[in-house]
Amino acid sequence: MLGWLEILVGACFYYSGLVKFARFLTRRSGPKLVILCHHRAFGKRMRGQFLYLKRHYRVLHLEEALKELYDPSARAGRDRRTLLVIAFDDGYSDNYTHGFALARELQLPITVFLVPHPIENEQPFTWVAGEYQHLVPYAQVERVTLGDHAYCLNDPVECKKLTRVIDDQARYPASIAEREDFLASVRQALAIPATFTVGELKDMSLTWPEVQEMEQSSWVSFGAHAMHHPMLTCLTDPDEVKYEIGESRTVLEKKLGHPVRAFAYPYGDFGEREVDAVRDAKFDWAVTTIYGFNTPRTDPLRLYRIVVGEHQHWLVLAAEVSGVWEYFLRPFSRIRKKYAQL
What domains can you pick out in the chain, each with its CATH number? Predict the structure, then answer.
């Protein structure tokens, strides 16, 4: 469901009282923590989302919320609203221009998970394969050979196949060097100058001065999100996995001047090897993208999150965060996907 139909369903859930009842049940069932997973922060609907969350949840920085969740003595007395964290993955520049500006205006804390390498080198996010797909229309050649296959760029079907290959190779590399070499070969094959950027390849990441300003405001806290944002489970070298996780903490702590205690698995993808590496890097907490509410019994290195978008209407967000959306609609979505594959 998209657009107005999605909003209509969200409105039915909200104005029927189901969302309010779900929030009540969550409060009554013991300590809970909801952690949201945003990426981008622009869009006209972000303000409505923030205002709803501020009214119905006790919004804290991730570190404060987790301390309270796992330590009963740290829990607030009178405010019994469910704990909630607004988190942004990756550190896009609009987390500063839009997210930070809104958090400061509404006095609402947010947490951002940073990827140090593109900030250090002032580079676009190379893992955003879609951005490299957008370069295809700007190719200076009519025919491109990648691997063992040649693609005719005048044929829309061939262009689609090419973008799928770019996405697969960029998303699932066996090493960071392999990914960077492949993306460089894509630019070379398309005959696009190294200095050329298009669309959101420009100014993709936060800068260190922006990070410092956000940090000093007290409205933003930061966690680590690996050095280069690879899909960690695809990396073949265990030492590279350890480097991606541990070095991201080292760099951020040097820049911020204090311990960085939380990690977010890139793409939400992880296995036992990645959990062990997070533990070895001395992180206290790590967040996934597995849907769910956190309780004092939740594994602190496998914390649940609810993935939301900046363009969602607050009525849809309300249903998502309360659990109503998942309870009523996700089973139908799974059934539809299952039969579509038959």
Answer: 31-116+208-311 (3.20.20.370), 129-201 (no CATH)
CB-based contact 248:232 (threshold 8 Å): no
Q: What are the two backbone dihedrals, phi and then psi, of residue 165, each rounded to the nearest 5 degrees? A: -65, -45
Residues β-bridged to residue 145: 150
* Whole-number Å distance between alpha carbons of 36 and 59: 11
Nearest-angstrom CA–CA distance, 151 and 144 = 5
Whether pTM > 0.85 for this model: the answer is: yes
Evaluate whether 100 touches 215 at the Cβ level (below 8 Å).
no
Residue 322 parent element (H or E): helix 314-322
| Mode of pairing for the β-strands spanning 220-224 and 149-152 | unpaired
Q: What are the pLDDT digits (tens) for 22-68?
A: 999 999 999 999 999 999 998 889 999 999 999 999 999 999 999 99
Measure the N-to-C terminal CA separation of the chain; round to a whole number of Å.
21
Long-range contact pairs involving 273-278 (C-beta distance under 8 Å, separation at least 24):
273/232, 273/233, 273/238, 273/241, 274/232, 274/233, 274/241, 274/245, 275/301, 275/302, 277/232, 277/238, 277/241, 277/242, 277/245, 277/246, 278/245
The structure tokens listed for 133 are 């797909």
Q: CB count, 10 Å around CB of 289?
A: 17
Q: What is the pLDDT of residues 146-172, one digit of tens each?
A: 878 888 888 888 888 888 888 888 888
